[in-house]
Amino acid sequence: xxxxxxxxxxxxxxxxxxxxxxxxxxxxxxxxxxxxxxxxxxxxxxxxxxxxxxxxxxxxxxxxxxxxxxxxxxxxxxxxxxxxxxxxxxxxxxxxxxxxxxxxxxxxxxxxxxxxxxxxxxxxxxxxxxxxxxxxxxxxxxxxxxxxxxxxxxxxxxxxxxxxxxxxxxxxxxxxxxxxxxxxxxxxxxxxxxxxxxxxxxxxxxxxxxxxxxxxxxxxxxxxxxxxxxxxxxxxxxxxxxxxxxxxxxxxxxxxxxxxxxxxxxxxxxxxxxxxxxxxxxxxxxxxxxxxxxxxxxxxxxxxxxxxxxxxxxxxxxxxxxxxxxxxxxxxxxxxxxxxxxxxxxxxxxxxxxxxxxxxxxxxxxxxxxxxxxxxxxxxxxxxxxxxxxxxxxxxxxxxxxxxxxxxxxxxxxxxxxxxxxxxxxxxxxxxxxxxxxxxxxxxxxxxxxxxxxxxxxxxxxxxxxxxxxxxxxxxxxxxxxxxxx
Length: 486
What we know:
This protein is of the alpha/beta class. The protein has helices at 42-46, 71-84, 97-108, 128-141, 147-154, 157-162, 164-175, 179-190, 218-227, 242-245, 247-259, 267-276, 281-287, 299-308, 310-331, 335-349, 354-371, 379-426, 433-452, 457-464, 469-485; strands at residues 2-7, 10-17, 24-28, 50-54, 90-95, 113-119, 204-210, 232-236.
């Protein structure tokens, strides 16, 4: 159904298809095209949506107004159209100029848009001189002067050869575009720059690019997809009017995107949104479309986890305290032993730290006076007790030293006894090669020293052949027996 809708002083031609109670999707045209450019998509979209198509200001059956136009003016026409049709919110599909209008809506009227498809479009044109030349050509010759060049940009050579009828139909539609309307919208595209606001878009967005698009090369669509947090990207093997050249692939991608279940924001997507957004949380919620899950909705689930965290810590502390309790009880019976060991250790350190002990004892009465100002400090008693303790420690140290000396004497006697028995074992018959060599060397050295200094040889002999204590004792016993017999 095609009708005219009055938007203030301007009249807009509108076509509506599909069930009245279905979700609404609005289709926005390319520069130099009318709403008939979407004919191939209407059947598949009308099965799921109430499809609203309209002719852009100055195009098709819409009213011609003096230009130049701006993107804000063209975007305002869409908002006014939604108001006139009593549509609170709608999906949006825009191609080329329609995609630029969609970007403006997402940035300035995002609460009126559910999901958006931005196809074969850009956020900014660098070549303003090219637009000025095209505007001058249309002003002089009308759209007929640029029709052939436009068809070459809109369709790939293969498609122009394979389906000349479709190309002829679109060319006829283009030729019906009023020059004023084309010039006014061309000026809006020339002055376009929507790059800065893309990072604040919070709607679900699908970006479609044409692999062979000369009007808006794929790089321009990639830039949009990269700028909008969570945007999806589809590449079609087509030129500029991808919805005509690859109508089936285009319709499949669009319907699949618009009918897909609402996606929950992934951690990566949520992080990307947090990194680019500088608005308050409340503003972010207002910018989110209905049917999508905002990142703030996950916060309540995280709070119980944070509250439950202290419970394991308390349990850990309880376990530690239970482990420590038996150790304290077991140590109680051995208190006297530990005290004795501590006294011994203090006694060992006492001689080296007498000055420190005196200082600490001098400070002790001051502490007592501070706690009990009515009592006089008993410094003399404390010193006499410490002196007695020191005497006891000295006595204990003396006894320990005497015991240590006796032990050392016994060990020395045992070593000497062992040494006296050692020579008989060393002079045995079984000798190693090293022992034999050492003995021969010693003999040669003894002979040489005897020749050089005969007086020194005797002491060496007596020293090496000194009789042991056992031999001396046996000799004395033998002498006593001899005396008794005599």
